[in-house]
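Make up an example, fold above all:
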Amino acid sequence: MAAFTRRAILCVATALALPLALTACSKRSDETTVKAETAAPSGSAPGQHLILSVSEGLQAPKELLGTLLVQQGAGTSVELPWVQSVKREAPSGFEHLAVLAFADGASLEAWRSVHATQLVAPLSLKQAQVLTKSAANASGSASAMFKISYYSLVAPVPKFQEWVDGYLTKYLEAQRSKGILTSYVMYLEDRGRALLVLEYPDAATEQSAEPIKEKLSEELAASDPVYAQLMPLKEELRTTQSWTLAVPVTQTGS
């Protein structure tokens, strides 16, 4: 009788434990699913990004360029300090340009609130996501030379992101490793226009870079079949709207 009682107790305990175990497994599975769904997509950086620009031919007030990026607030950082286009031919895409990064939407809205009186014409604001980015932000060096291009996409964003991951990032990272680029980043504005910002250490490096870049690309194509396959597709995925060289505002005396 005692043995039967022990067996009965054991059966009851097992029956009670099984649903609990299944519930725990289900909870872990749900947590994993949530994490997977909320993970940042390939090529993107967390947080919010805001592109600040003044259109070509217009001049921003000096106090705007001097103060707008100084009072950043919590959760705010400068990814690109103010630069000014120095291209002699139109279109250059902008007169002045800067980019801010925010930890989240709340930080962005707090910054907007603080600077509400300054966020007026001729200043334009565009929210954006990052498609690819170097580990470091723009250096802010007075000797830096930037090449900045706007593109319109003629392919779906996922297809364009595939090209960015498989070709562009590898190409830019190879340049950075060789000391050609100090930093790089490509943004995608909410309305689908891409902005590529390349920072060279100085003007001399930018001017002499092409032969080195061509060699790097050839080496990548020879060793990376994905890179080689995607390399010729850029003209099928985007068209160039504008490009310009730009220098930090401190160089221009603005």
The first strand starts at residue 48 and ends at 54.
